[in-house]
Amino acid sequence: MAHRGSCHCGNIGFSVDAPLDEAIACNCSHCLRKGYVLAFLPRSVLTLDPVDGEIGTYRFNTHKIAHHFCMTCGCAPYAEGISPDGGETAAINLRCIEGIDLAAVKITEVDGRAY
């Protein structure tokens, strides 16, 4: 099942070919401030559209996750990293998915402050 998403201004567009029925809400300093609801999936299910503007990248703490954001509108629709099993992973900000009903998504609270 393909889902469409983008940053606020549309410079970063993408599709995700996977069910988006589970996600996390992390309370680390970054996720809490941004209000992320993240679905972690294999990087292979994320397809980026050609980018119209510049993509910024922010890394913090252990620098394992590259949080990407639009340099025009500041919206952060996805991140990339390596999963604990060594595979390439994508973290999709479900708040950037078109037409998603977040009430239908199983959201697990994660204590990211503990790490």
UniProtKB/TrEMBL annotation:
Question: Where in the numbering of this chain does the CENP-V/GFA domain appear?
Answer: 3-115
A single GO molecular function, which one?
metal ion binding
Keywords attached to this Swiss-Prot or TrEMBL record, sorted alphabetically, are:
Metal-binding, Zinc
Database matches in PROSITE patterns: CENP_V_GFA
Which Pfam family is one of this chain's hits?
GFA
Instruction: Give the range the annotation lists for the signal sequence.
Output: none
Which family, according to UniProt? Belongs to the Gfa family.
What name does the UniProt record give this protein? CENP-V/GFA domain-containing protein
What is the source species? Sphingobium boeckii
